[in-house]
UniProtKB/TrEMBL annotation:
Lineage: Bacteria, Pseudomonadati, Pseudomonadota, Betaproteobacteria, Rhodocyclales
Matching InterPro entries: Cupin_WbuC, RmlC-like_jellyroll, RmlC_Cupin_sf, WbuC_cupin
Chain ranges of the Cupin fold metalloprotein WbuC cupin domain: 6-88
Protein's recorded name: Cupin fold metalloprotein WbuC cupin domain-containing protein
Organism: Zoogloea oryzae
Length: 159
């Protein structure tokens, strides 16, 4: 059997795994090594998963997210944490992807259970620098995460 095809069973496995782990996210790398020049991965994310606002300072590290299932709330911030734009990303919403240039602070929230997307960005993987994290937002595991996640989701209450 070939590993060339990506199908619903792979997405189902990713969703089940995401629902069973504390971060409520799981991924399946399509690239073989973290040193490869292009990173492509499938990511399953549940609504209570927190993705801290961040940017990629390397000018070669733009990021593209395209949902395969579910709905994503995409957020863009200025360097001080002011929300500049929030948009629902889902083919049926008329917005099929989220392309973030290097240096732009952003985050996502899952707006429905079972959300899966493909993420594409340049490799190799580099541990984020302190300046790449939105200092106005709590880090994963810190007090205030639930409140900040609720604020981010609140940008989509009418969506």
């Amino acid at each position: 059997m070939s590993n060339c095809f990506l199908d619903a069973s792979l997405l189902d496995e990713l969703v089940a795994k995401a629902r069973s782990v504390p971060r409520l996210r799981s991924h399946h790398n399509l690239h073989l090594e973290s040193t490869e020049p292009a990173h492509r991965l499938l990511v399953a994310i549940e609504p209570d998963s927190y993705v801290r606002p961040h940017c990629h300072l390397d000018p070669n590290k733009s990021e593209t997210i395209i949902p395969l299932r579910g709905r994503i709330g995409a957020l863009v911030f200025d360097g001080e944490g002011k929300l500049l734009e929030a948009r629902v990303i889902a083919p049926e919403a008329g917005s099929f992807g989220f392309h973030v240039p290097a240096g732009v602070f952003h985050s996502i929230v899952a707006l429905e259970s079972g959300t899966v997307f493909i993420e594409i960005k340049a490799g190799p993987y580099a541990v984020p620098l302190p300046a790449e994290w939105g200092q106005w937002a709590p880090a994963e595991g810190e007090p205030g995460v639930a409140g900040y996640l609720a604020e981010m989701k609140g940008a989509f209450t009418a969506a």
